[in-house]
Amino acid sequence: MNQPASLINARSQGVFVISATPFTDEGALDLPSVDSLTDFYLAKGASGLTILGMMGEASKLTDEESLAMVRRVLARVAGRVPVVVGVSHASLDQVRRLSHTAMALGAAGVMLTPVAGLRTDDQVQGYCAAALHQLGPGVSVCLQDFPQATGVYTSVAVIGRLIDEFEQVVMFKHEDMPGLRKLSQLRAAEGSGRRRVSILAGNGGLFLPQELRRGADGAMTGFAYPEMLARVCRLHAEGRAAEAEDVYDAYLPLLRHEFQYGVGLALRKEVLRRRGAIRSAFVRKPGPVLDAADHADLQWLMDRLEARIGLLPQVPPHS
In which residues is pyruvate bound (predicted)? Predict the structure, then answer.
């Protein structure tokens, strides 16, 4: 068993990087690249890691590969930061088994997303409540709200009821779009006596400065320049919001490009490959493959970004 840095909790903050899952050019799980990618994220200022998320191609992994990924990342992190494991699945038995195994191996918590096909508030709450009952109070949970990917809308009322009923819900991954008003409403409810939870922003970081202004505690996303996310969160926490937005603006063209639905994962993995974090940018099928024009666009944006980074005040990732 690996010792977690700490369990995720209502005060968790910073940048929990959503990790890619590295494969070889032939499509096999690349465990040496899991090590180098983990080292890369930590060196770039990650406060925590989240593995087996949608960006991590969790649905394309076998059960054995999922466990191998969990074991390898936890061993590499060695308790330095919390690791959250995505456990979403149509089978509640599978959710329970993976969650309890991950926690026993040293995970700091799990991330749960309502499964596709849920249409009403009662259905969403019923599924989440059933899953949380299966997990039990010993498993700290990040509840993910990502309707663009799942087709499931989770209302503020349902989120509030789940927070009220289940103490193990300690974190909320805010990924609705548009969703700033939802974030504000969740924070306002705390002013009326509701228990606080940590709120981390997703969507590639596309709205991060505004989400921080609305009360987000940080980010949980996988932009291939995580040092930017870490620096923006740090500057904002220091009360330097304008400087944070200046840093963010320098990276925005590439962040926006990487955020494209349908091809974004391939772009992100190619950036990670070019930055030396992984050996191959292979995306398992069904998944996108970049062509020559895609590579040219990406190189243009990365070159422009490097030039703009050179104009920013230089500070180390952990200062």
Answer: 220
Is 73:38 a contact under the CB 8 Å cutoff? yes
Q: Is the peptide bond before 286 cis (omega within 30 degrees of 0)?
A: yes
Gap between the Cα atoms of 147 and 144, Å rounded:
9
Domain count, the chain: 1
- The answer to whether residues 87 and 112 touch, using CB atoms and an 8 Å cutoff, is yes
Q: CA-to-CA distance for 35 and 286, rounded, in angstroms?
A: 25
Q: Containing domain of residue 78, as a range?
A: 14-240
219 bridge partner residues: 15, 201
220: annotated binding-site residue? yes
In a domain? residue 99 = yes
Cα–Cα distance measured from residue 11 to residue 268, given in angstroms and rounded to the nearest whole number? 29
pLDDT at position 5 over 60: yes
Residue 295, domain member (yes or no): no
Position 257 in a domain: no
pLDDT tens figures, 251-269? 999 999 999 988 999 999 9
Q: What pTM was estimated for this model as a whole?
A: 0.95
Whether the per-residue pLDDT at 318 is higher than 60: the answer is no
User: Would you mind telling me the total number of residues written for the chain in this entry?
Assistant: 319
| Torsion of Cα atoms, 124 then 129 then 130 then 132, to 10° | 130
**Is omega for the bond preceding 253 within 30 degrees of 0, making it cis?**
no
Nearest to 183 by CA among 195, 197, 170, 165: 197
Instruction: Give the separation between CA 61 and CA 28, rounded to whole angstroms.
Output: 10
pLDDT, tens digit, for every residue of 226-239? Answer: 999 999 999 999 99
For 225-238, letters b (16+ CB in 10 Å) and e give bbbbbbbbbbbbee
Residue among 235, 223, 242 nearest 301 (CA) = 223
pLDDT digits (tens, 9 = 90+) for 28-62: 999 999 999 999 999 999 999 999 998 899 999 99
Q: What is the CATH classification number for the domain harbouring 226? A: 3.20.20.70
